[in-house]
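thread: overnight batch results

M.L. [08:02]
morning all. the overnight job finished for the chain we discussed friday. pasting input first so we're all looking at the same thing
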Amino acid sequence: MCNGRGGATSSAMTTSVDTPSMAYREPPGAAQLRRFTDTSTEASLQRLEQLAHLMDSAFLLPGINRRVGLDAVIGLVPVLGDIAGMAIASYIVYEAKRLGAPRWLVWRMMANVALDGAVGSVPLAGDLLDAAFKANRRNVRLLRRHLERKGDLRPSEIEGTAIRLD
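M.L. [08:03]
and the structure it wrote out:
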């Protein structure tokens, strides 16, 4: 629907956009679909950070105040859980390669995935160590640092020292 000033307003079902030549309606869910199909560096890294959070630190264990993710939970299934965890971690490495990570960084990320898989394959003790290693968060952090240094991404933290002025 048009708001009378040439702009766009949104309703509960559709979004109306006015252009000089015509008005068109965007189907419901199109904005969300664009969010998942956006291949920009920042959007891809944000999706990877969300995936790493889900896999490595989505849940807080009561009593011990330790965060674990789906990787530790699915790792409890003897063989299939470890394979599924490594497949998801390998997707993060694939996305890093697609975003232009150098070969040495991809190899380092693959080593993290291999170590996580090897440690996680040990029954029970490996699952406890797997919950502490957090390879997915580690790999996304490596990728973010590389992209920030390369200049493809705005820094998430400001380097330097802060001085309090009172």
